[in-house]
Amino acid sequence: MDVYLPIANLSVNGLVIVALGAITGVLSGMFGVGGGFLTTPLLIFYGIPPTVAAASAASQVTGASVSGVFAYTKRNAVDYHMGLVMVAGGILGSGIGALLFRFLESVGQIDTVINILYVILLGTIGGLMAHESYLAIRAARSGAAPLPRKRRHHPIVASLPLRWRFYRSGLYISPLAPLLIGVGVGILTMLMGVGGGFILVPAMLYILGMSANVVVGTSLFQILFVTMSSTMMHALTTKAVDIVLAALLLLGSVTGAQIGSQLAGKVQPQKLRMILAIIVLLVALRMAFGLGFRPSEIYSVEPL
């Protein structure tokens, strides 16, 4: 089923795009990640221009997050107080990211920067996840109970002023910490089309010290509003949002998020993390190969 994408200016198989959206949705529901960190590279591999892929993936992540937030709200697993602080930071970050995007686009380096960021971030996150998952699986097989992780925020967070109580997360910390994390995620969302959950979830656990039972739902809540803001920024500034591409991705992701939220409670978490880590590392290696690979045609001519 061929579908024409007006902004990307090419025809694609609509069923393939829907399938990519479904994969993103499943990851969103299972891990609390927006899924854009895989959607954008996969779209690039499929032939979508990086700028259009990044801008359109951000809008698609919004749909997957809506479905996921509803699922976790039913379980009372969302800290709205913490989420709103992160949303404020994320909207500020998306504005900063829009300026960076326009600058890099003006100097002709945006495609290269997007690819390099993906290689660095996916390689780092995938490596850390794989290491942690391997230790957890090995401990489970040997019968040794893993040492429980002490839930404690980072010393830098403890030194920040103006403490607030976040009752649902069980924290008494400065709102500056989640605000700054939100700013960083907003910049990444604008530049890379990611929801930022693959950075946000570890940051909430290991930097803020949030309660694990609200991390995924709160992450999706933040991603929902920040991707909405980033999509609007892209539509107004870069004009790279392809509504047809985004609609096809949404069609698959909304259903996938519900499936993912159901699977999350049925499969061993350490095995899920290892599978995700392997996928992330494979995507990072493929993008690194693409950066160093010399194309058969160095120059191309585009119609005006």
SS element count, helices: 11
Q: In which order are the strands of the major sheet placed?
A: 1-2
Cα distance, first to last residue?
Answer: 28 Å
Tell me the series of helices and strands, N- to C-terminal: EEHHHHHHEEHHHHH
Low-confidence regions:
none
Count of the separate structural domains: 1
Shape descriptor = globular
The total count of strands amounts to 4
Rounded to an integer, what's the Rg over CA atoms? 19 Å
Give the class from helix and strand content and strand pairing. Answer: mainly alpha
Helical content stands at over 70%
Largest sheet: 2 strands, antiparallel
Transmembrane segments: 12-38, 44-72, 84-104, 116-137, 171-199, 205-228, 240-260, 272-293
Pfam families: TauE
Family: Belongs to the 4-toluene sulfonate uptake permease (TSUP) (TC 2.A.102) family.
Main location: membrane
Give a description of the structure.
It is a single chain. The chain has helices spanning 14-31, 36-46, 50-73, 80-106, 110-142, 155-159, 176-192, 197-206, 212-236, 243-263, 269-292; strands spanning 2-5, 10-13, 164-166, 171-173. It has 304 residues and is mainly alpha-helical. It has one domain (2-292). The strands form two sheets. The protein has a two-stranded antiparallel ribbon.
Describe the structure concisely for a colleague.
Its main location: membrane. This protein has 304 residues and is mostly helical.
